[in-house]
Design brief:
By secondary structure, the chain is mostly beta strands. Helix content is 0%, strand content 54%. The strands form 2 sheets. Strands 2, 4, 5, 6, 9, 10 and 11 form a 7-stranded mixed β-sheet that branches. A 4-stranded antiparallel β-sheet has the order 1-3-8-7, with no helix packed on it. The protein is globular and about 40 Å long. The termini are far apart.
Length: 117
């Protein structure tokens, strides 16, 4: 099993920035994918950004150019730098850890991000 601990959410005004962090521990894989998803009230959970252990990134169109995902040197942490935040970015953000086949999927507890207009 993998444990994921998220931090960094909060309340920020539109145009501001936040940085989310997620640390993974437990039975980690050398080849993996870590990423961030979000779920707004009344909406389905959606992909925000992912990064493989090899450095390949994926971003939702809605965050391209504003958000940056990165991994720590130890490869068991993932960060999400969020700039130019908009009210529509308000959601609970979840960290996800998995293998390439989504068969070893783990989720963090979620961290609230609220962007005021």
């Amino acid at each position: 099993q993998v444990q994921l601990v998220e931090s960094g959410g909060g309340l920020v005004q539109a145009g501001g920035s936040l940085r989310l962090s997620c640390a993974a521990s437990g039975r980690l894989l050398s080849i993996n994918v870590m990423g961030w998803y979000r779920q707004a009230p009344g909406k389905q959970r959606e992909l925000v950004a992912t990064m493989t252990s090899g450095g390949t990134t994926t971003y939702a169109d809605s965050v391209k150019g504003r958000f940056t995902i990165s991994r720590g040197n130890a490869k068991n942490t993932v960060y999400l730098q969020m700039n130019s935040l908009k009210p529509e970015d308000t959601a609970v953000y979840y960290c996800r850890y998995s293998d390439f086949y989504d068969s070893y999927e783990h989720w963090g507890q979620g961290t609230q991000v609220t962007v005021s207009s």
